Amino acid sequence: MKKRVLTGLQPTGVITLGNYIGSIKQMIEYQNIYESFIFVADLHAITVNQDSIELRKNIKSLIALYIACGIDPEKNTIYIQSENPYVTAISWMLECNTYYGELSRMTQFKDKSKKNANFTSGLLTYPVLMAADIISMNADYVPVGIDQKQHVELARDIAIRFNKKYKELFIVPEVIIKTTGTKITDLQTPDKKMSKSNENQKGVIRLLDDLNVVRKKIMSATTDSEMKIIYDPVNKPGISNLINIYSSLTNKSIEDIEKEFIDSNYGNFKTKVADVVVDTLSNIQKRYNEILNDDEYLDRILDKGRDKNIEISKKIYDKMIDCIGLGR
Fold this sequence. Notes:
It is built from 13 helices and 5 strands. It is mainly α. It has a 3-stranded parallel β-sheet with strand order 1-2-3. α3 (52-69) packs across α12 and α4 (85-95) packs parallel to α13 (295-324). The relative contact order is 0.14.
């Protein structure tokens, strides 16, 4: 029996080329190894103010974009977090087994609460909701970035505490942090991660960007004056980043790329990188628009995912109610 992996996605409406290469391609690998569950964490999104129309639009857009990138609905259970009422009920029972000190020590809470003194209680307690997402699905593995590792560790602590207090009910999840693989950096400041929040958007490529704009961004990417296409992230971060992009999208090794372009200049190489990126995004955008314009297709996927999600979490909920002594 396959182990179960759970991935939550924030409905931001923006996915960068860095997200695609560093995260989505990893998820595509997981769908062939594990029993994969992917959900849109729309309840997590409302810890900060959201425009209701924009939020709902972003939820469907995000799902369509991930499927367009290669997330297979036949190999993944895809669902929207808020469509399962058991998750929030489970979250409350877990909150009553979580200490304030644990939540107040969360790094993200400390950082965000300092920036906004008038924060809601949801900012403090959302790690418990994240734990409920994981525990309610009996997930074995949770792949996250290093900034979310602390939250999965909290989910582990809560699961262990509940198991000891009542009985062995929950699987204790394990965190997966990708320590190898490709990290794509900003095209203008290659010492920084490519992020949608970067001040200079000329260095950021979004999957739904205009393709002519994408080409211009790559052609104006920061490099160096040496004019040698050699992979050296320390001394040549700009050209090394372009090599990473080209390698990731063509599945060519870095060594083969260096040989292929040994007599080329940066302009020629940038053109080749731009061609590959534009071709990749063109295919993704075409599929994305097809999916987004087919409501019945998306609804079938989400209905199926919701029903399976509810079926699994209801069993966990019923066991928790029985253990705690709630209800009749």
